[in-house]
Amino acid sequence: MALERTLILVKPDAVQRRLIGRIVSRIEDKGLSIVGMKMLQVTPELSKQHYAEHVAKSFYPDLEAFITSGPVVAMVVEGPEAITVMRTLMGKTNARESAPGTIRGDLGASRQMNLIHGSDGPDAAKREIATYFKDCEIVSAPTGLAPFLWAKEEE
Asked: Rounded to two decimals, what is the model's pTM?
């Protein structure tokens, strides 16, 4: 198994609620590495690029209004099966249905204002990371902790 990368966005509701540190801690506590991070304001143009598959859908105007309502923290997260691990850690899209122990289950109570976005597959991760980050903004820095986090054959 190879290391994977995924895009994670700490959404405007989580930024406003000052949950950035708690979310980052959960990612790091899980053993994943943050190899890129920045705070930015999502513009309507960036929203349309990120959510291109949803632009024609009836719910898109509300989605754009929400994601552009305040700053987000964008991260590239790396680790074995990072996409699946992060999606499990995030919990179900509807925070009211998310299990305790997940980010949304512990910190959220809304379907739309659900704190965090994560890529849903390898193709989406590649596209989304390129949407938010230049190659030079992603820095892998091996920590020497890998042998204590997963077996060699899991890398």
From this structure: 0.92
50 catalytically annotated: no
Catalytic residue, from 116, 117, 129, 133: name it: 117
Class of domain 3-136: alpha beta
CA dist., res. 10 & res. 52, Å (int): 19
Where in the chain are the domains? 3-136
What digits encode the pLDDT tens for the residues 57-73? Answer: 999 999 999 999 999 99
